[in-house]
Amino acid sequence: MLNGIKAFFNQNIELPEPDSGREEARGKQGSPDSAIQVAACALLLELAHADEEFADEEREHIEEALQRHFDLDPATVQELIQLADEERGRSVDLYQFTRLIADAYDLGQKMVLVEVMWRVVYADGELAKHESYLMRKISNLLDLKPGYLAEARKRATNDGT
After folding, report:
1. What residues have CB less than 8 Å from 112, skipping those under 6 apart?
2. 153 CB neighbour count, 10 Å cutoff
3. Rounded Cα distance, 69 and 50, in Å
4. Rounded Cα distance, 24 and 153, in Å
5. What is the CA radius of gyration of the chain?
6. Which of 123, 142, 141 is nearest to 51 (CA)?
7. d(CA 153, CA 35)
């Protein structure tokens, strides 16, 4: 996974001047932030493919969410999606992705991510049985309690009840 991340960020991240200190460390290829972006994108793609159909609405929602949450341009988002899809295809389970996020994100960040995941699930207008199962599995791997999952689902579906 690290080699793909390094290649992606070598092509897309302009490294700051050497005297910029902390900012330089954050922008370097293969940084923890870039690994988290790939992990989050891989989880979104896994959910989008859960019903064995990757709808245009799901893809559009993923692209918009990645642009907004990670402040990426559309071309970079396309490359991130491609890289994350390759990593998702090579992985044997979701643990490698969820562990990165669980270790790096606080509760609020996890809730935002899970809300985005629910929006991907509902982007095609349907909730497939496997999508619901996968959401519960991912939230468990992210160390979220079931109540948090339900809360994020309500916000994502705009259901205040």
Report:
1. 69
2. 21
3. 23
4. 37
5. 16
6. 123
7. 26
Rounded distance between C-alpha atoms, residue 139 and residue 85, angstroms: 20
CATH: 3.40.250.10, 3.40.50.1000, 1.10.3300.10, 1.10.3680.10. Which one for 2-12+29-157?
1.10.3680.10
pLDDT tens for 13-31 read 333 333 333 333 333 334 5
Confidence of residue 32 (pLDDT cuts 50, 70, 90): low
Domain ranges, ordered by start, for the chain: 2-12+29-157
pLDDT value of position 54: 85
Which among 134, 107, 105 is positioned nearest to 120, based on CA atoms? 134
